[in-house]
């Protein structure tokens, strides 16, 4: 037998020995086994995601920057509406000091450390009932004046002293439940007129209040 024939015979023997192995089905467990590189890649991916979340979370917690004065005025408007809802519903004790008591304005002015003016709203059909002192934000005092018309509808004007003089702001409108509020900042004070009235009517009364305070 020549060398070439021996080589062909060896090749034939190898095929007979290994062809059955090469053609048999691949075990199912082989499909479930991930290559080692996939495990490393997955671990690296999870690490990258974790780092990204760690960086993003502090940014996500940051709320959009809003001027401190705007946030404070909005909070006070909500508090004014809630105070109106609570005290306007009182039948026997809607105010702490009645308008007939001369010390009402002096007392509230002293507590706010500011010479308060009390608007007269007779031309709008409302009469001053009196006032009370309320706690404000960060320990600041709030003076609340209550008015009532002939039909028993009530308005409240809340006045709070600003910690520092701020630029005047135009009328802003807010609503909390059934109570509407027009509010503005004028130099040293914030003013919040609240009532269960339609928006145009409350805006008209707010304009009257503003004109009298400016005199």
Write a brief structural summary.
45% of the residues lie in helices and 26% in strands. With 215 residues, the protein is of the alpha+beta class.
Please give a structural write-up.
- With 215 residues, the protein is α+β, with helices and mostly antiparallel strands.
- It folds into two domains: 59 residues, no CATH class; 147 residues, Phosphorylase Kinase, domain 1.
- The chain contains six helices and six strands.
- A six-stranded antiparallel β-sheet has the order 1-2-3-4-6-5.
- A hairpin with a 5-residue loop joins strand 2 and strand 3.
- The longest helix has 26 residues.
- It is rod-shaped, with a radius of gyration of 39 Å.
- The N and C termini lie far apart (129 Å).
- About 8% of the residues have low confidence.
The structure class reads alpha+beta
The multimeric state of the shown protein is single chain
User: What ranges have pLDDT less than 50 throughout 5 or more consecutive residues?
Assistant: 26-33, 60-68
The tally of domains stands at 2
Average pLDDT score: 80
The CATH topology of the largest domain corresponds to: Phosphorylase Kinase, domain 1
Total helices: the number is 6
